[in-house]
Amino acid sequence: MKSKARYILLILSIFLAGLVTAVVLIPERNSDVTTDDRPEKIRFPYVSKVENGSFHVRTNTGWEPFFVKGVNIGAGKPGAFPGELAITYEEYLRWFQYISDMNANTIRVYTTLRPQFYNALLDFNQSNEAAGKDPLYLIHGVWVDENDILTIEDAFGEEDKIVNDVIRSGKEIVDILHGDRYLAPNKGHADGTYTSDVSSYVIGWILGIEWEPAFVVGTDENNTARDQFEGKHLFTENASPFEIFLAEMGDGIMAYEQEKYGMQRPVAFSNWVTTDPLTHSSEPYPNEDLVEVNVEHIKTKESYETGMFASYHVYPYYPDTFSFQKEYIEYMDERGQANPYRAYLEDLKQVHSIPIVISEFGIPASRGKAHENRVTGFNQGFIDEKTQGDMIMHMMTDIHDAGLAGGIVFAWQDEWFKRTWNNNDLDLPDSRPFWSNTQTNEQHFGLLAFDPGSPGNLVEVDGNAMEWQGEKPFYEDERLKLYVRSDEAYMYFRVEAENYNFEQDTLLLPMDTISGQGNDGMKDMKVSFSEAADFVLQIQGPDNSRLLVDAYYDNYYFRYAVLTDLLERQAEYHTKNSGLFNPIFLALNKQIKIPTSGEVIPFTGYETGKLLYGISNPEHPEYNSLSDFYYQDGQLEIRIPWQLLNVMDPSRKMIMDDMHARGTIASLKTDSFHIGIMQPDENAPSNVPMSRYTWEDWERPSYHERLKPSYYILQEGFKGLSTVKE
Question: What is the enclosing helix (H) or strand (E) of 157?
Fold first, then answer.
């Protein structure tokens, strides 16, 4: 530990060194000193301000223009829900190093975190500054209880409960940022003693969340008498009641920090395309353009010197205005490409007099897909990790070249606890953090991956059998050997086959996953199985291989033809042992009608059970994160996501029950699967023998961190972005 005298000398050296970019190793945290020991001459009253369309940060040489190049950090990691706030000091410290190495200058968090976050940020930045290097700046959020939003539906309802709760939470965070707060234990919330003063690194606030239109409308309709607000630092002009709610909560928090600590910092209010001030005439979903929230109706007084900025979450695939609004899809950028994203940013800038930060944007590198941009292919999923980086950098360049004040990528880390609309009834909510569902795009926005397994015990689809050494075949005969493994994300299959032509021959791997149903054979292949199969993995060369599901066990059909009427009913699908197997689909959109053209887009899905040929080993030069299978030198390797097999929680062996018998999608405990393999030809037996496969339950997942290729693409791309483009 350093002595107090050494600490003061260190801070003086920071003051003389100034600020430049880079990163260093982090010393052991010194918990015995506080920032009250800092010389008064470097305790600037304001750290940042906004003016002339840009952020500015204050250094020892004066105000410097500052283009925000940031990442959003969530509160979750594998094996824990975000409310557990389980990320450690050491993990934060390591992540800050990675983020700084990526040439980012800002991190954003959404709500109060435990002391280890603020401790790590202070130690990291002090270490950087001691070496004459730039700190990581912080933009902090104040969360709004989503349950209150759903139940009260009025920001001023129940005697101003929501607005009062937000202001109270914001005041707590102010104290936390200044290292002067204790929070008592409260399940699902941060707690602890906060002593790290990070206030000199906080360059702004983003208050609130993505506002549900019904909440905005409810607030406006229930409070028509509220037509203006006059606070200590903020006031309104021609504002709606909801905008008055924003001004009131912002003023309450800003005034508290000014009065108690003599500090200010720029403030913004969270917003997104759904409630922006623009009109989207081609938007097919009325709720996505129902009401506007316009922060231009909130004004700052002379007493508020640091200013306001606008914050928007803008993704390229949602809402559908990015695929259908004529002036957006016809916009051509400097690259000569159609660019509705850039068109929207320029449209947005026209309605704002204050700087704009795109505080969330990103692309998920997931196997599953939930939405498409019909013009650019910047889709919500089924994007590989390299393309993820290219697309994010494309959008960040658009943000910069449109003259905005910065962008904050969503997100730093993958989040296993997340769900997605088109498959959120196919898993169990209380166990999502314990396994990696590559079919859920929301889990895979990160630049930092949490891959299943631990180094030295991994299976990669790359044709290299080294990781299978020492294992006995699960099944073998004179022609075939089959090996089977599994982890927190996949089932893996390795096949050794004699006299097998990968380009021309067919392999069948039937799987019996649930007893009491399934098909005894495949009608079109004229083969039978020793156990009734619920799935068949059909390998037919690099371009025509897929996983098929028993029509009776097809959850896509059940959800959209039985529970709803979006698909036509097929009587034979309701019969057990029909011999029919279906391709596996995920939905992309319901039937929609484009208001401006009258065009009707039918209910749409895509075949997610079709397998992609390629190499899944991140160390390989031909790595593609979406790869499902690969063949090399007589070795065929395959990986299948658990959810494609109707597994709802592999950690507890919970699978999907008989949907037709239950009348809904529900879970069932299984003990094992039965798996077989066959290479159909005239000389092979028509019956496929199937053997029992099981795996161990787990309470905590094994995983390891990995920086995705997208990280390195941003690392290079961020170098060229500095101040806001004029």
Answer: helix 157-177
